[in-house]
Amino acid sequence: MKYQKHLITALLSSAAILPAAQAEDSxxxxxxxxxxxxxxxxxxxxSVSVITADDLEKSQTVFIQDILQNVPGLSLNQNGSFxxxxxxxxxxxxxxxxxxxIDGVQINDVSAPGGGFNFANLDPGGIExxxxxxxxxxxxxxxxxxxxxxxxxxPTGEEGLGGSLFAETGSYKTFRAGGHIxxxxxxxxxxxxxxxxxxxxxxxxxxxxGNSEADGYRNISLHGKVTGKLSENHSLAIISRYVDTRSExxxxxxxxxxxxxxxxxxLIAGRGFFNYLDGALQNTLSVEYSKIDRRSEAGGAPNxxxxxxxxxxxxxxxxxxxxxxxxxxxxxxxxxxxxxxxTSPKKFNIDSVFSELSWQGVEGLTLTAGLRYDxxxxxxxxxxxxxxAAYYLADSGTKIFANWGEGFKAPSIFQLTYICxxxxxxxxxxxxxxxxxxxxxxGFEQALWENRIQLGATYFDQKIKNLIDxxxxxxxxxxxxxxxxxIELSLEAELTDGLIVRGNYTYTDAKDKGSNIILVRVPKxxxxxEVQWQVVPEFNVAFSMTYNGKETDRFSPGxxxxxxxxxxxxxxxxxxxxxYGRVDNLFxxxxxxxxxxxxxxxxxxxxxxxKF
Length: 612
What we know:
This protein is mostly beta strands. Helices cover 5% and strands 57% of the residues. It has helices at 4-13, 53-59, 64-68, 138-141, 413-417, and strands at residues 30-31, 39-40, 47-52, 74-78, 86-90, 98-102, 105-106, 129-134, 148-153, 160-170, 174-184, 188-199, 217-229, 234-251, 255-276, 281-298, 301-302, 308-322, 327-340, 344-359, 365-376, 380-393, 398-409, 435-448, 453-471, 475-496, 499-512, 525-536, 539-548, 562-574, 577-584, 603-611. Strand 19 and strand 20 form a beta hairpin.
């Protein structure tokens, strides 16, 4: 294969981002996103990456997008740092083809042209873990899950009282602070977090092109979760989140400008948990609502074309019944309503039913088979099947997994209602169909040296037909069929008790099947590597490298490949109190993620955090 040399080099020289794998059996780590109920990784037949609160803390993450870029198969594009619109691709699938959840509540922006989520404003405060599923996940998550799922999980309060505080400052007059408090008793628990950041920022239009005006950014994020235990088998939870941002942006070109974007995001969900038959039958009923409002100003005056807003209401039932030691069955019903009055007065509904069987009749082997049916009130029904297999040999620390599945993405509200007046059209495209995918993967994970070394390799292949894009003849139409395939390699090694090396390499071949042209903004090669050294118990140092290969674009020359290095350190000078600092872009690399938009030069940050 033409990329064989890249793969061999990466396997020998990089290390994996498999957080929590170190000197423990990572296959016993429990995840929830892949099946929507708790299950150890040894039984999961899909590619899953887990980022823990400890990983977020050690990496000194400011925005979730920063650490997601280090996950195999994920790539990031942002049109200007500190608030520029940020898109995440999983294995070449667009950000609009990825479901983003907070505590299981979908937060994709229904008013965006493609219905994707903007990662620019996602603060890591009060997050317990992030689970990333790669590949089609429509069987459990319905529309938009062609590329995968990013599920952000916040902590649940426990008995007692505890919390944390932090504050940091640094380059570009940046200041960030926040805190988290949680507690409760045997009946009622709570978890509350809040954080904020303000910065003068940099020019979103690259300063090397003569743009000198700094573009500031501000973000305030609040999150809360309250849980109550009604009885031994009945409990309730209320989840809420609010994000308020202000981001200065530049004009078309891009060139310096005096535009300002504002956004407010809100979600609230009520959830009931009801367990019967000695816990064999688990039921969850959720009522969820999320909303986003976006507006912009130009030259201090409201921009009449810059106001957008959308709402999503979801009624969800999920159940799982453990029949016996060998069989289990999951089942669910969903009703979703979306509307974006800034785009159209119409409301769109999807009603869904799904089920998945699991079988473990052979020691170490887990098989699942599932089917989902979705009925959209405009374009009709879609049926989605999925099969997975995982085989875990505990004695040798070997896991082999494979899956095949289909996925779909409903056209967004904007795509369904857009009328291209300058194209001479008087109505939206009535024949618009959902995007549909068909994908499979096979991989293995191997533990060596008493679980101090973790190896992984995965091959993936996915086809997407009826890809929606703009066309002068219809406005938005199903005009492309694409195929993405590639390999993800990972390795983590705990060389000594205080020295860990990790990283990953991804090769992605993503092309339009008709023209054989490479998909825009998808790097063919990407890699991440990091060395973590605990010099003494109180002092930790981390040195990391991020590589992103060359990318093409539709209306610009694209971007060259780039490599950035970062240095981080922390010192715990008393129990629960730690000072930390980092140097981002250590060697002052000039690079762009999107043509014409700048990225920060070498920058310095320092802070203090404490736990109680």
